Amino acid sequence: MTHRLRGPVRIVGTGLLGTSIGLGLSARGVEVQLRDASPTAERLAADFGAGRLARPGDRPELIVVAVPPDVTARVVAAELEAFPDAVVTDVASVKAVPLAELRELGADVSRYLGSHPMAGRERSGALAGSGDLFVGRPWVIAGHDDISYERGSLVDDLILDLGAVPIESTPEEHDRAVAIVSHVPQLVSSLMAARLADAPDEALRLAGGGVRDVTRVAASDPALWIQILGANAPAVVEQLRAMQADLASLVDALDALDASGSRRTVADALRAGNEGVARLPGKHGTHARFTRVQVRIDDRPGQLARLLADIGDADVNLEDVRIEHAEGAQFGVVEITVLPDALQPLHEALEQLGWQVVA
Questions:
Q1: CATH of domain 285-357
Q2: Which Gene3D superfamilies is this protein grouped with (predicted)?
Q3: Alpha carbon distances (Å) from 336 to 136, 151, 288, 295, 350
Q4: What is the pTM of this model?
């Protein structure tokens, strides 16, 4: 299998991201050298096929540092010093702080280029690793003036070898962006999920797709997120204060719904949410509008496969799919996302084949 990277890649940190990078590169024939502060963690990643254990005398071409944010700069500096011919990148979710710390340490940042794959899971560790984790996902390259294009191209090669999409940015632009699309959503999800902790069992039995969507990332590791949020606090606080003002306005409107303008305040908040969602890129980065069809499906082996095959036979391109189950029910509802022009033909085809279209 062909690949762009020529020489060995050293990965420092064998958690979810480090192991996934190792798995992806190893599957493409790239030599991967693994190093972790925990001998158990690095051996586990090696056992899963993410690479071999690093050895004295290794001379990597590229080093990927995948350690927690609060030690990223220190580890990057150590790797730059230990391997003076290698280019070093890190995959921490904040970019301005590590670069500033490296400059304070006097590290050779002419061989350092920070990056950040916009991919992950709620689970952590080598056991959650996947070589396909980055396929089709954005991967930010946080450029700075001290590194040459030739050296930085190794990071491009890494990203492309893993099937990701390189996105150029500055460290400051990156941190402002992830505050909006990642860090604040994490906090909102956690705060909403916290409301469920003391909720009556009767209420939880009513939980559907809405609350599950909002709280999905609330299962993430608190220890890691404290570090991430601490490193990007100014940008996160800016967004939270704006949201705090919006929330206060909404609370006041709902608390006095019959007052003049209150209903408009609520409607404007909901409308603004519609506009924001509409701006999110869809499949292949497009802004195409989609519509949804909901189909009842029995909880029996082979039913989902049959439904997907029938959709293909109807010559309809499936944009997205998800399944929702009600507690105690022996059936579920499959929500199929398609282009609007496909809605009516798909509806008719599914009903002719005996499927119950519920919405």
A1: 3.30.70.260
A2: 6-phosphogluconate dehydrogenase C-terminal like domain, NAD(P)-binding Rossmann-like Domain
A3: 21, 44, 15, 8, 12
A4: 0.77
